[in-house]
Amino acid sequence: MAPIYSRIIATGSALPERAVSNADLEKIVDTSDEWIRSRTGIRQRHIAADGETTGDLAFLAAQRALETAGVKAAEIDLIVVGTTTPDIIFPSTACLVQQRLGANGCAAFDVNAACSGFMYALGIADKFIKSGQTKKALVIGAETLTRMIDWNERETCVLFGDGAGAVVLEASSEPGIYATCMHADGGYKELLWNPVGVSVGFKDEPNHGVRIKMAGREVFKVAVKTLDSLVGETLEAAGMHEADIDWLIPHQANLRIIEATAKRLEMPMDRVIVTVDQHANTSSGSVPLALDYAVRSGKVQRGQNLLLEAFGGGFTWASALLRY
Ligand code: COA
Questions:
Q1: Are 182 and 169 within one domain?
Q2: In this structure, are 233 and 150 located in the same domain?
Q3: Distance 36 CA to ligand 1 centre (A)
Q4: Does the global pTM surpass 0.90?
Q5: Distance between Cα 123 and ligand 1 center (Å)
């Protein structure tokens, strides 16, 4: 029997309308455009409007991906949403999106792997398709991370933004996703976390203490080292070499982390998709937003090999090597 591959047949994305520049942030917190750009590469981020939710962005991104694919919602038999900022505790954002799309009946669930959420969701959906259980899957990464930010905390507030991206995956005899890798190490949990919730309780603080806490310099070091070995592992799993990769589509957290991974792959920066300057770190939204930009701008062409990777709180890290 010929192997079953999952192929990305279309992409879509959604960003909140409001873009906030570094100069805008200078007015509310002790920072500067120069500091933000030189340390992170970020120039602006999009911020969800009052009442605009992760589910709203996920729905729009999914709708655009389905329209581009020419696939009806009723044909989808799996929806996986990577998110760490669901609209409500339950039902999952995947169920909320499913209902709005009219895809009722198919399996739908969320994956919380922080910034690696979309990469985990893609890896899981790939396995569903390879098992023969799923023919068409909708995989979404969506976040409203700015809801977990203290705008007085300059160490974190300049880094994040909101947004969503989606792909339609289809079972095919043509490649396809060649390899996916997924890892986590909860031993690092305190370097990047949001330690409030249903069981441990909330706090008598603004926004009930819901905010990201991060040891930036330590996260940076582990991210660079971990992504270095992740891309090597992914190439090996796919039986490929650095020179086989046409495009690196990395998690968009920090331009310096992206440059370090590109160097490891011996890839010039003109073969790396960079959107961190426009979107900042949108967590699970970041890789599918970058992918949709790469496809719609005409950079990524059918038949090219793409290496997607992400790293985030947990720590979690995950990747996919695929032919687009
Ligand atoms: N504006 C101006 N100054 C700031 C600032 C801001 N927004 N945030 C921090 N600073 C200051 C610090 O207070 C520190 O001041 P000090 O030297 O007087 O103590 C100084 O800038 C340098 O801080 P440092 O931590 O050395 O900066 P850095 O070069 O490590 O860059 C990060 C900081 C957060 C940008 C960087 O560590 C990073 O990107 N880490 C990874 C974060 C990440 O990607 N997280 C998500 C993973 S999914």
A1: no
A2: no
A3: 9
A4: yes
A5: 32
Q: Which of 47, 40, 237, 13 is nearest to 154 (CA)?
A: 40
Phi/psi for 95 (5° steps) reads -65, -40
Nearest to 121 by CA among 147, 93, 99, 144: 93
Q: What is the pLDDT of residues 222-257, one digit of tens each?
A: 999 999 999 999 999 999 999 999 999 999 999 999
Nearest CA to ligand 1 atom 29: 39
Report d(CA 313, CA 160) in Å as an integer. Answer: 14
Nearest CA-CA partner of 80 in 56, 112, 33: 112
Active-site positions? 115, 251, 281
Residue 207: domain span: 178-323
Is 12 found in the same domain as 107?
yes
Ligand 1 atom with the smallest distance to the CA of 40 is: 35
Instruction: Round to whole Å and give the CA distance between 223 and 241.
Output: 22
81/169 same-domain check: yes
Q: What is the mean predicted confidence (pLDDT) over 278-294?
A: 98
- Indicate the helix (H) or strand (E) that contains 312: strand 305-312
User: Domain check: are 82 and 95 in the same one?
Assistant: yes
Instruction: State whether 133 and 269 are in the same domain.
Output: no
pLDDT at position 1, please?
72
How many angstroms is it from 234 CA to the middle of ligand 1?
30
Amino acid 203 reads K
Residue nearest to atom 13 of ligand 1 (CA): 155
Mean pLDDT of all residues belonging to the chain: 97
